[in-house]
Amino acid sequence: MDAGSEGLTSAQRRALAQIWAVLPQARLVGGVVRDLLMGRSVADVDMATPETPEQVQDTLTAAGIKVVPTGLSHGTVTAVIASAPYEITTLRRDMETDGRHAVVCWTTDWWEDAARRDFTINAMSRSRDGTLHDYFGGQADLAQGLVRFVGDAGTRIEEDALRILRFFRFQGRYGTGKPDAEAMRAITQRVGLIMRLSVERVWSELQRILTGPNAATLVAMMAEAGVLSVILPQGFALGRFIHLVQAGAPADAVLRLAALVEGSKLDVAQHLKLSRADTAFLLAVSEGPVPETDATDAALRRFLADEPARPLIGRTWLRQATLLAHAEARQTKTARPDARAFEALRKRLEGMPRPVFPVAGRDIVAAGHAPGPAVGQILARVRNWWMAEGCTASREACLDRLRHGFE
């Protein structure tokens, strides 16, 4: 399979040759097909086949290929070749759907399997010989930059409400121009179905949207369709988010979430069930002082002595975006923040080593002070002096100050 396969690595080609040698009816499906059509490098390789999961597992094992039963109830096994995974899923037909999960049965009908997929550009498959099987016009839609549901958009959404968020993610990556009118209409009429989903699934998709291509445009579309109001009932600041993205802030999902949400960040973190690390960063980047763009090196060292650079830098992005949003609301250019000054500030913070206070409680005791609560108080006084001096005083200087300045 050489023609149109430039996006596959040599290792991927060898692995596919091994799989096709024992599963000749299997086809490439999903993202790998889109990537190959668009001439992009292929990250993940997914396949589908008419054989049952048990048959696939037995056949691959007999051929000496490692198999992991990653999702037998959904028809999926994973072949592991040269440490890389290749998911192989049996063709399926939906028996029941409830907006969150589907009960499936196996089929040997490729059209039937394609008909249950979400978007036309996700319903194509490609045979071993390079033949493209396109039952719903996915290739034409991909060329036109059109993200369109397979069949009736409302029905596809009612089968799985997560497809609402997937629509925006796919629109960001593959769509050009205005979104499909039928899709947007169906989404607007069914946004309430999102509430049936687990927040873990919602956050998983949302963070990919926030950090993916065309994030500002997509989030504005989501607000227009009523999606954001359901996902973030605490409220949202669309203008601040758009300005954050347009200013060039890094594609950090939590930083962008901090710019988007209004109200209590802790409430948002609990609502979306963020991890401890993400919750901590969301709170840190949203609260606390922000260095001024003309801050001295000593002032920046004091900031860094109290906390890492990441939340400090994040706060500078949020302040810049907030000032831009305010300037836009006032329709004046005089109040717009100096982007170059903010960028220079961030570079200084990134390049500045974090100061470490060189004295500990044991040094206070060694200097002759009795162990107890007073040690912490004395240590705090020494540290305050060290901070006031710009966080540059050495251990020896701090100990000398301890001996002579706090008697």
Automatic annotation (TrEMBL):
EC number: 2.7.7.19
Alphabetized InterPro entries for the sequence: Bact_CCA-adding_enz_type3_sf, NT_sf, PolA_pol_head_dom, PolyA_RNA-bd
Domain Poly A polymerase head: 26-148
Cofactors, names only: Mg(2+)
Domain tRNA nucleotidyltransferase/poly(A) polymerase RNA and SrmB- binding: 180-234
Enzyme class: transferase
BP GO terms, sorted: tRNA processing
One GO MF term attached to the UniProt entry: metal ion binding
Keywords, alphabetical: Magnesium, Metal-binding, Nucleotide-binding, Nucleotidyltransferase, RNA-binding, Transferase, tRNA processing
Family stated for the protein in its record: Belongs to the tRNA nucleotidyltransferase/poly(A) polymerase family.
Official protein name in the record: Polynucleotide adenylyltransferase
